[in-house]
Amino acid sequence: MSKKIVFDAGHGLTTGGKRTLNGSNGVVNEWTMNNNVCNYAKTILADYDVEVYRVDDVTGKTDVPLYERTNKINQIHPDLFVSMHHNANTGVWGIWGGVETYSHMNKRDEELAVRFAAEISKLTGLRNRGAKKENFHMIRETKSTVPSVLCEGGFMDSTTDYSVITSEKGQRAYAQAVANVCISYLGLKKKLT
Description:
- This protein is an alpha/beta fold.
- Helices cover 37% and strands 20% of the residues.
- It has a 6-stranded mixed beta sheet, sandwiched between helices.
- The chain is globular, with a radius of gyration of 15 Å.
- The mean pLDDT is 96.
C-alpha cells in the first residue's frame, strides 16, 4: 500500500501583505513561490510509490480557511504533512535571512523539523535558522498521529534571500530538499517501470 503525503502552499494570491518587496524579479506573491515549491516537489515524488495531495486552492484564487485545510488533512490521514511558506521580518529590506521550520509539541515532529531545516538550508544555500516549536494552527490541528511540519524557505524582505527564493533554481532546490526528506523519512521506493 502506497504512502500518502499532504502538501500545503500557504496563503492565497490575494492574501494581504504576503508578497516580496520589489527587487530584481519584481514583487512576487508568497503563494506563487509556495505553489511552485509544492508543484516541483510533487513532480519529483511522482517517480515514487506515494500519493501526494494538496489542501490549499491550487489556483491560488482562494485563501482556503485553515480549519478547512486541517479538516481535509485529518480526513486523508497522511503519513506526512508539510506546509510550505516563505518568511518576512519587518517589511523593509534587511540583511536577516535563512530558513526555519516549525513543529508543534511532540518529539517526533521536532526531529523531523530539524531534518527539513538542515536539508533546505543545504540545498538552497540559505542560512539554517533551525527548528522551532510554535502553536500554528496548521501543525497544531492535524491529528497527533500525522507527522506535521511547517517550513519557511527564506525571507521575502531579505537582501540575502530574495534572489534565491524568487528564482526557479532556488524554488527547485527548496522542493528537492522537501522531497529528499519525504523520501528518506517515509522510506519511499521508486515505482517499478
